[in-house]
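anyone seen this seq b4? input:
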Amino acid sequence: METLKGAIPEGLKRMIGDSTVDDLSATSSSLHSFFHHFEPFHQLLTELADPKHALCGKSKDAALESKQLGNQCFSKGDYANALDCYTQALRKAPFEASDMENNFVATLYINRATVLHKMSLLTECLRDCTRALQICPSYAKAWYRRGKANASLGNYKDAECDLNMAKIMESSSSGKRQIESEQKNILDQCNSTSTGLQHKENTLTTVGEVPQGKLQCVTIPEKGRGMISSHDISPGSLVHSEEPYAVIILKHCRDSHCHYCLNDLPADRVPCRSCSVPLYCSQQCQTKAGGQVLRIFPEVHSAIEKLPSDLGEYAVKVIQGHDSKHETENITEHKHECQGVNWSAVLPSEVVLAGRILARFLSERRTSEHITYFVEKLLIVLLHYSSWLTMAYMLLMQELSHFYEHMLPESKLDTHIYSIVLLYCLNRSFGAAFSIDEVSISQVVIIISQIKVNCMTVVRLKSKDAHGFSDQFGEFPSCAYLTSNVEQVRVGKAIYKAGSLFNHSCQPNIHAYFLSRNLCIRTTKVIPAEGHLELSYGPQVGFWDCKDRLNFLKEEYMFQCQCTGCSKVNLSDIVLNGFCCVNPNCSGAVLDSRVINCEKQKIKNFMSQLKIDKNDDIHTVLNQNNASCHIQPGHCLKCGSYRDLVSSSAAVDKALIFIKRLLDAILSKEISNTTIADALKSLHWLRSNLHAYNKLIAEVEDNLAQAFCLLGELQLSMDHCKASIKILEKLYHPDDIVIAYELVKLCSIQLSTSDGAAMDTISRIGSLIKCFCTKMSYKM
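predicted toks r here
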């Protein structure tokens, strides 16, 4: 793409960079005309959309190479790498439907099943054996391996049936004798157990929960459309649930998460049958994404029909089991990409998402003869109009202008280029339905720009050790300080038509989370009737200060946030990155110029109020009588004393050098007395320069709590943990889920020391979790 961008004449670049929505037809036509006569553009299209040049297609030679590497790893006992090699072979292997008896893919599934069995991943092994049998029901080795896996799981009845099937399908005498020997071993295992009960897999069942009440979409001044409640709603209530209109996995998660449901991939991941890009957690997800249902050929059924009735019924049940028994949806999101072409693997995620939106909309309205018709309707869907048949297209363009015209010139140019490339790629798949002219190009430009501000990032919560201490408990039995933190992993981008209606607030009263790819929204506070339901698009009070939140929202979503958290002064924004007063008896805050510029007017407005709540902590950092004269960089907001922020910043930087050494020592588990002493000295420097509620101090207190815990100094660890929590309770609401995470750490120490206060901490954690039973997410 850089070659294309570099070749565009500067005058055309400026024309596009300065364009408005009204200019799109002209800019699209000019750029399209340039590319039409530019040979490297057509060469790029060939590389992206011609199956003959595809790098994402299937290749038996490449699959055989991966299989041989897997065999070598297996013979060395390197099962982890063998597993990876066989998975890569499955990803590359072409599905040969014409040769079901000697199917290469079935062989690969059994090779991987053997590795999974060696790794004690028995359920995964069982599934791979079943997949091999769905391809080749007469595969004796697959029945044999399945029998061994069932036996290891304690499913002796199924194991016996599997081995009987293997013995019938096996043609060699030596093979039959091996199977009979295994049957005897299984019988002995069954007789040695106290019961002969059939093992049942654990299955996760969920009770269907219906969103409470009805929400109303209303027009909100300065915010556009938004959602309000029609009645009082209590905290923790599910208020919205929705499947995505379209979704795409992010590139960095392609090998770790299912390309359909976006859940973590199991060891027995399932590849796409037609290309080498997607991986799925099950055949069900693979079928839903690509629309390819595995069919057992009639001639294969004839072998099963000759079996005894009970064994025949068992074989049919296995081959047509729950993993492949489902209906194919009319609309499949990967099908148009699944032709061995490269474009869906190369283009940016939001561009591929735009392609999926267009493909779905076309599939839903196949009577349309021109892209203009359904793109106009689609744009209205993206803008949340409830009845797009009655909305005028010109009104739509007016509302869109805000987003496009605030894009950076380079973003406008990129969007133009990708729109043209995407239309050509879709044209190769759908033909004349995707005509390419200035009208269709300009509309795709708008769709991509709209996706950037309306799509939600699907996240997964992942518990991770902040400093790599996954095994510290074995080496430090006296210490049970939980150092693991919850990390949000961005795995996909999706368009939720109704979900996009919820407006942003830096102090949200709802949280969004995801069950598979399904969006769920719950309340976190009491919401009165006609109250606005607002979630966070990313930044929240307590996490970032106001200036950083405003900059992020302006750059990512092109609006100036005017929520309560940003329009009114709050303690967190003042002290989060603030310095302390040089007067040790003063609790006022000292701010640098960047924070002052953001907070000055809000502080003035706050101090002009006739009544100020004395219980509000904000009064501890401000001069309640006359703050205007002190609202200057480097001056205390309470007493006006001056602090040299240059020297204070230098002292903080020096302290952080020693804190970094402490973190390295924790990581290596080699914590010396010198390192601890230097870290404690650094904490003193920080407290001498930063405000008592500065978030950096809380983080350093937590680091020291970890270090002392690993050294077995549990009382000191508890003291520093409490100090960290005390600060965080000022930055966040005391009932925030962030506090619950920190209380879990404190509780782990209290339990280790038999501290009676542990029960009170557990009780508080329970209350917080009950209120915040949702998983938090970002709309990014």
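Residues 645-668 form the longest helix (24 residues). The CA atoms of residues 611 and 624 lie 10 Å apart. kinda curious what u guys think
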